[in-house]
Amino acid sequence: MPRQSANQALAYPATMYAPPTLPDLSRLEERRRLSPAALRAFFNIVERWEIRDEDARQLLGGVSNGKYYELKRKPDDVLDQDPLQRISYLIGIFKALNILYGTRLADSWIQLPNTNPLFTGQTPLMYMLQRGTPAMEVVRRLLDARRGG
Fold this sequence. Notes:
This protein is mostly helical. It is 62% helix and 0% strand. The chain is globular, with a radius of gyration of 19 Å. 20% of the residues are buried.
C-alpha cells in the first residue's frame, strides 16, 4: 500500500457542498453594491421593530445624529465594513424571528423582556445595545439554532 503524504492525509474529503463566497467588505466596490439595499432593509427593520432613532444609531455603531438622518434621507451612501456587518446580523435576526413566530410577535420580540439566561431579564434590544456586534452575532446564532438553521 503506497504511503500518503502529510498533505494528502489531512486533505478534506471530496464533497458536493461548496460554501458560498462571502463578499469582501474591504473592497469599496462591494460596499457600494451592498450599502443601498442594506440601508433600506435596516430602516424597514427599525420601523417594524419600533426602535427609537437613538437606539437605531447605536445599532449602526454609534453614528452621529447628522449622519443617521443623512443616511435615512439618502440610503444610497456607501457604508464602512462595521455598519454593513451590523446590518447583516440584524437582517438575519429579523429573518429568523419571522420564520419562528407570527408577524406580531416577530416584530415585538426584540423589545420584550426575555427569560433566557443570556439576556438576564433584559430585552434582546438592550442586550445588543450594551454589548454591540458580538451580542448581535450571539442573538442571531441563538435564533438560527431555535429554527434549526
